[in-house]
Amino acid sequence: MRPLIGIPCHADYADGSKRPIYCNNRAYVHAIEHAGGVPILIPFLHDFSMFDTLLPRLDGLMLSGGVDIDPFIYGETPHPLSDQPDKELDEIELKLASWAIQEDIPTLGVCRGMQVLNVALGGTLYQDIHDLCPDTLHHSHRHMSRDYLAHRVNILPGSRVEQLLGPGPFMVNSLHHQSVHTPGRNVVISGKADDGIAEMLEVPGHRFVIAAQFHPEEIYTKESASARLFASFVQACGIDSMQENGVMQHELASHAAR
Q1: Which letter does DSSP use for residue 194 in this model?
Q2: Higher-pLDDT residue of 181, 137
Q3: Active-site entry in 93, 111, 199, 218
Q4: What value does the mean pLDDT take over residues 15-43?
């Protein structure tokens, strides 16, 4: 049985009609699908108790890109170049991240998702890389196509990321203006750009908690490391699902033999 992987939605407005909608980029959905998972979009729920019904059915969680996290959450005042935060999204995704870590649910963070995981574990962010780290590479290539390969990522030897993706370095796209500053509890920065900016993290001691500051969902068809990231994630999500399915099949077979 294929694993069910939750992807939180964002609140937005439909073009033309301006009707309020919940949505996310198709690339995330199809990257999970391509790797063998079943993506499930999670809308905002005002009654958080409803998550008690939904979450136990998920085999994995993917936290996607989006607007900047409210810096007050990690003890800072907003930088002039920070986005207007979406406080409801922050609340939901931080709760989901904390739940996944506590319950050891395989989790993949992408861009904002990497930052959410770090903040959920008590870490902080650079609110604007260019302003606060002026000698670094240009990381926000939003004027280019989303699959434009902007720089390389160097992988920490001996890390889980190296085990799953290979030793690197490999090329990535780059669409962010923020990044991890102080790593959170047990967070290991397992991939960096040549300028030292954090590009991947992992949290040892869990089945799978890995995040990328770049956007692997946009480049997995042409960059093998990004394809391996999704394949490894879906495989980790599928372990319990396959075991549960095996138990169910055994029980059905036993019942039929009676």
Answers
A1: T
A2: 181
A3: 111
A4: 95
Which residues lie below 8 Å from residue 224, measured CB to CB, with a gap of 6+?
Answer: 170
From the CB of residue 187, how many other CB atoms can be counted at a distance below 10 Å?
23
Which of 199, 202, 217, 218 does the annotation list as catalytic?
217
pLDDT at 250: 44
- Is residue 181 annotated as a catalytic residue, yes or no? no
CATH number, domain of 127, equals: 3.40.50.880
Give φ, ψ of 253 to 5 degrees: -65, -40
Give the domain range for residue 151.
4-257
**Cα distance between the two ends of the chain:** 25
Total count of domains within the chain: 1
> Strands, E, within 52-197: which ranges?
60-63, 107-110, 125-126, 151-155, 170-172, 179-180, 188-193
Coil, strand or helix at 15:
coil
More confident residue, 253 or 52: 52
Are 194 and 137 contacting, i.e. CB atoms less than 8 angstroms apart? yes
Give the pLDDT confidence score for residue 239 in this predicted structure.
82
Per the CB < 8 A criterion, the answer to whether 92 and 77 are in contact is no
Catalytic residue flag (residue 111)? yes
Q: Which of 215, 218, 223, 237 is catalytic?
A: 215
